[in-house]
Amino acid sequence: MSNLNRLIDYFIVSGLSTDSGLEPDQLSVPTPWVMAHFRNPPFTGDSLHCPPLDRPYKPHVLSHFPVSRSENPLDKNAVGMLCHPRALRFQTQQEPRDPAFHSFIITKENGSRVFGAALTYYEVVCEAQICKAMQTLQSMHMAELSNTQSRTLYSHLTENSTEVHQRSPLVVKKKQRTFSIEKDTLYATKCMCILSQIPLIRTFERILVFLYNAIMSTDQPDLPFESHIFNLIFEVPMPPLGGSVAFTVMGNRIIGQRPGSMELPLLDYPLHQMLLLLNIDKLLLVFSSILLEHQVIFYSKDYLKLMLVSEGLTALLFPFRWQHVYVPILPTSVSHFLDAPVPFIMGLHHGMDSQALQDVCANANICFVDIDTGNVDVPDDLPVFPYADKLRSDVEHELRRSNAQESVANGGNQRDSGFRESLLIDDSGVSSAIPGRLELIQNNEALAKITALAQRTGVISSLDDLKDSLGAAGDAAAGPPPIKPPAPPKSPPDQHVTDLIFNSAIREIFLHYFLQIFRSYESFVINSSPDLDTWLSNRETMQNFDRAAFLSDHSESHLPFLSAFIETQMFTTFIDNKIIAQWEEVDSNLRVFEDRLQSFREVQEQRIRRFYRTHLLSTTLSPAHTECAIEKRANKADLVAPPPKYSGEKPKPFTDRAKHRPGVFPELNTSILDKEPPSKVKRDINKWRKKGRVMQQVENLQMEAEQREKSLQEARAKSGGPSLTMNPAGAAQTNWKFVESLLKECKAKTKRMLVEKMGQEAVELGHGEAVITGVEENTLIASLCDLLERIWSHGRHQVQGKSALWSHLLSYQETYHRVLWNLQLTPHLPVALGLPRKPSRTPEIPILNPLPSSLLFDLKNVQQMSEIKTEVGYTRAFVRLALEKKLLSKHLKQLLSNPDLLRSLYKSYGFLRCEDEREQFLYHLLSLNAVDYYCYTNAFSKTVIGYQVLIFTQKKMSGGGTSANCWLSMSGSLGETKRIPIPKHTMEMNLQNKNLGVLTTMRVGHDNAGMSPKWMVEHILVRNEITGHAYRFPCGRPLGKGVDDGALERLLVAEMVPPTTDHAELLEKCRTPPRCRSPSMPRRSTEPKLQVSDIQEMLGDAVNNLVKHFYKPEKERGSLTSLLCGEYGLVFCMEHVFQCGFKSSRFLRNRFFVWDFLEKVSNYFHTLITDHEHYTIAKNVESTMKSYCHVVNRINSASEAIGKDGRFQIFICIGVRERYLQRWLRILSKIPITSNMYEEQSFLRDPALSQFVTEILGSLKDFNIVLEASLIKGITL
C-alpha cells in the first residue's frame, strides 16, 4: 500500500527520557512578552523556589513508527511540544492521574497541514536515578525555602498565588506538593500520538483509548502491541472519498468515514458542543471577525475546546479558507507572536491571567474569546454579517430539531446542556485534567481532615468508598468522576453519526447564505489574460474583481460588511482560484461551491411563484441525502482492513522481550515495525478501486433524474462517447415551458418592485403582503438584472462574452454606428471644472437643450464609466440608468426593433423571437415607470457626472449684472463640491464632478468687489447630464453689502423638477420671479397678510411633515433639508411666527429683520447673567439664557458673508436639533424687550399662542435631527 493511501502516517510515543533525566524545559520559562504583559507568569522554569513537582520538564519523543516517510518527514521538536503543551509533568500516588485527550495541527512551510491526536496519561517512574534526582531537587527546594533571605525575595510569589486563588473560584488552595522517595511513588506523563493527513479525530481518539485500556488492563493481551501498531500504520487504508473503512483495534471494531468529493470537507469536531460553549449571537460576532480577518484569540483551560472552536469556526468559512497565521494551540515559548501585526487565529491555555490578557486584547482591538466563561470582546465598529437575523433563526431551529430528535431516540433524555469535562467522553471514556470532586477533596486540607476522621470512626474505609458514593450521587454541576481506567465507549458510532449529521446541517445553513450573497459573483470576475503565465506575471497590477458593480447589487445595509470582506485575503484567494481553474485543476472548495451554486440557481428558476420566500433548505443539498450518506457509510464499510496478526512465524520473541505490566507502555520491537507489509496488499488495492467504481455507479442511481442525466452527459462528453438528444416535439415543449416561466417571473418581479417601492400605500390598496415588506431596493433590482440576463441568454446562436444583454447592446451599437455618429450625438461634453462652454450669442437668455432620450446616448454614457470593469457590471449600470430615467421598456423595445439583428443572434425558439411574449414582457417593464427610482444616482458614487448650470438673474434696474467675483457650491446625498467660480457675464456653465447623488442645497455668493457688486438672482437651474434630473434653486433675493439683509452668500434649497415638465415650460417658470425668496418670505405689497390661524395651520403642517419623515422607513424618507428650509418648511413658518404682531411703526422704519430682535435679546440675557448684584436668576433659566447667547455668538462669529435671514435660518435649525427652541420661546415671552417690540396678540406675548408653539415644537424632541454640513456652515457648539 502506498504511503499516501495509509490512514496513519506515524504512531509516536513521547514522555520522560531516562538518558536525559530531569531536564528543565527552558521553552516554558516566561518570555519577555509574557513578563511585560502579566504580573503572574504561568511558568517559573527551574528556579529553586518552585517545588520540583510543579516545574516543567522537557519531554522527548521516545519512539515513532515508521522511522521515516520521505513525503512526510517528522518534526520531533514540534510533535514533542504539541503532545505536551504544558511540558512534562510529575505526580505522586496521592494526586489524580486521569488521562486526557487533545488534538492539534502542524502547519508546514508549504501550507499543508498534518493532524495530530494525543492521549496523555501518567506512568509510574521505575528508574531509581530519576527518583533520586527528584528527591535531590526536593531537598534543595526545602533548603531554599528555609533561607530567610530567600523568603523575603520570593514573598511576592505567595501573595500572587493568593490573588490567583481569590480571583478564580475554580482553583482550590492546597498544600505545597512534596516528594519523598521513601513514602511516595513517582509518576510522569507519557503520551501516545497519531499523525495523519486527514482529521479523523473521533476515530483516532477511539484507537488511542482502546490502546490505553489494554495498557492499563491486568490481563495479558492476545496479541503483542507490535501487531496492533503494525496493523494500524501499514494495513489500515485511508477511507476513499465518499466511503468508509473498517478495522479492528484490541478486538474492537472501528469505522472511519470520509465525505465525498462533492460534499462539504471533513469536520470531525461536534459543532453542537461549540454552540453550547458560545451562543449563536456571540458565535456570529466571532465569525464576522474571522471573515474580516481580524486578530482572534481563543482562551480556555481545555486544549480540546481550543481545537473545537478554532476548527469549527474555520469550517463554517466554507468555501473560503483562512489564509493567515493559524495556531489553535499556542505554546508559551512563542507567546510573543501575539504582537505580530498580521491577522491570526491563536489559542491560549488557561495558564495566563484571563483578565490581564483580556485587557491587553481590548487595548489592541483584538477579538478575544474566553471559551470557558463565554465572554466575547470584538473589535470596535464591527459590521454585521448579512442576513444575520435569518441565519440566527435557522441555526436555532436546527438546534431545536436536533434536540427533539435526540430526545425521542433517548426516550426523553435530551442532549446534555453542559460541556463535558472531556469533549468526547461519551465516546472514549477519557476525561480531561479538570479537577473533579474527588480531586478537590484530596487537595483540600479541611476536607482531608474530615475524611481521616470518617475513616477512624468506620464511616468509610478508604477514599475509594467516598469516590463510589460521589459517583452514585450524580452531581451534574461537578461533572463525571475521574475514570481509572476509562470504561469502553458506549455505542460511540451512534453519537458520532448524530454529530456528523448535525455538523452537516449547520454547515449547510452557513453555506446557503454564502450562496445567497455570491449567487452572481462569476459575472464580476475580471480576466483578460490568455494563459496562466501571463496572468501570474501581471497579477499584482491588475484588478480581478469588479467591486463597484458587485456592491451595487446588494442591500445598503449589507455594504459595510461586504465592502470590507471583498478586500480580504481569503476572498482574493477565492477569486484567484476561480481564474486559475481555467488552466489548472479546480480547487476542491471551489468545485463544491460551484456545484451548489448551480443547484441553487436551478431551484430558484423552478420555484417561480407570485410572491415567495425561499426556505433555507430548498436551495441547498437535501439534508435527507446527506444524512443517508453518513448513516450508510457508518453502517456498511466500503473497505475492510485485515485484522491484526502476528508479524512472523514465531510469537515467542514478543513474549520474551516484553512482559505485560499494567500501566506501563511495553517496549516495542522496532525492527518488526520498520518492515514494509507483504506485497499481496497491493492486489487488495485493485479490489478496493473496483469497489470504488461500483460505489460511484450506486451513487448515480440514487440521484434524481435530472441530476443523473446531467452527470451522464458530462461523463460522455469527457469520454468522447455519444450523447442523448431530445426529439423535436419534446424540445419545443420544453422551450415553451421555459418561455412561459420567464414571462411569469417577469410579471411577479415587476409587481413586487412596484409594491415595495409604493410601500404602505400599496399595502393599503391590497397589493402588498407581509412576506415582502422590508426587501431592499438594490436586491430587487439585482434580481431584475438576473432575469434580464436569463431572458437574453435563451436561444442564442453562440455565446459571446459573459453578458448576453451587453453583447446585444454592442451589436446594436455597431450596426447603427453611423447613425449614432451623425444624428444622435449632439456635443454634450462638459468642460473642465468651473470653465464655461462657449458663450451664447444672447447671454441674457440661458438655453437648456433637451437631452437625447435614445438608447445609444445612454449606452455611450455607461461605456464611459471608468470604475466598471466587467460586461455584467456595464449591463447592470445600463439597466439602472434606464430604470431611473423611466426608459427601460423603451430602450429594450428599441433594441429589439431590428429583426435582422435578432435573427442573427437568436434561434427561432428564443424568448426574444416570440413576439407575443416579448410584447407582454415589455408591457410589464413599462409598469415600472409608475414609481421613481434613483438606483443609478445612489449606486455609483465614483462616477464622474456632468452638470449643466443655468443662472436666471433679474434684468430690471440692472440687477442682473455684477462687478463682483461670483461662485457657487452644490451639495447632495453623496457629497459636495468646493467653491466653483462663475465667470463674469456668464449665465450658463458646465461642470464635471464626482456623483453628488440627489442634489439638496446650493450655496451661492460673491466677494462684493467692484463698483456695482449688487447681484439679483431669481433662480438657478441644474441638470444632471446623464440621468436628466433637473433641480430648481429659487432665490429671489439680492446679494451685496448694504442691500436687503446684507448677505454676500445665500443657501438655496433644491426643488426636484418633475420629469414630465416640458423644457420650455421649465425655462418659462425660471424666467418668472419666484413666489418666495430664500430663505424667508417675500415682502410684496400685492400679497395678502397672513392671519394667526393661517400661521398656526402652516406651522402644524410643517411639524407634522417632519414627524412623518422620521416615522417612515429610512429608504422612503425624502430630504430633511427641504422640510426644514424649503418652501413652507419649518424655518419659513417660524419666521412668520416672529413677524406676527411686530410693532413695525415704532422701530427700524419698517425694515425689520428677526435677527435684529434676537441679537437684542442676546445682549439683554448677557447683562442679566453677568450682573449678579442686581439680578437673581434660577439655575434652569440661567442655563437656557447661556445656551441662547452661546448659539447667537457662534452664528455671528461664523462668517460675515451670511445675511441676517441666513443667520436666523441657522438659529432655528440648531435650536431644533439641540432641542433648545421651545425652551428659548418660553423665556422670550416673559422679557421686557418682547413687550416693547410686539403687540399683545402675537405669538410671543399671547399665552395661548405661545403655549401652542412650544407644545407643537416639543413633538420633535424625540427625533435625532442630523443637519447637512452646508446648512450650518461648519458651526459647532
Structure, described:
Residues 404-415 have a biased composition (Polar residues). Residues 775-941, 1121-1272 form the RUN domain. Residues 479-492 have a biased composition (Pro residues). Keywords: Membrane, Repeat. The protein is built from 48 helices and 24 strands. The protein is α+β, with helices and mostly antiparallel strands. Among the domains are: 271-385, Rossmann fold (3-Layer(aba) Sandwich), CATH 3.40.50; 495-640, no CATH class; 749-826 and 850-939, Methane Monooxygenase Hydroxylase, Chain G, domain 1, CATH 1.20.58.900; 942-1075, PLAT/LH2 domain (Lipoxygenase-1, Sandwich); 1090-1276, Up-down Bundle (Methane Monooxygenase Hydroxylase, Chain G, domain 1). The strands form five sheets. Strands 1, 2, 3, 4, 5 and 6 form a six-stranded antiparallel beta sheet that branches. Strands 10-11-9-12-13 form a five-stranded mixed beta sheet, with helices on both faces. A hairpin with a 4-residue loop joins strand 12 (367-370) and strand 13 (375-377). Helix 33 packs across helix 34, helix 41 (1130-1139) crosses helix 44 and helix 45 runs antiparallel to helix 47 (1247-1258). The protein starts with 9 loop residues before the first strand and ends in a 5-residue tail after the last helix. The relative contact order is 0.06. About 14% of the residues have low confidence.
Unreliable residue runs = 153-174, 412-443, 465-491, 608-622, 649-657, 679-690, 715-726, 767-774, 824-843, 1073-1086, 1145-1149
Strand content: 5-15%
Helix content, binned percent:
40-55%
Please give the alpha-carbon distance between the first and last residues: 80 Å
CATH class (first level) name of the domain at 1090-1276: Mainly Alpha
> Which descriptor suits the 3D outline?
globular
Give the helix tally: 48
Largest sheet: 6 strands, antiparallel
Class derived from helix and strand content:
alpha+beta
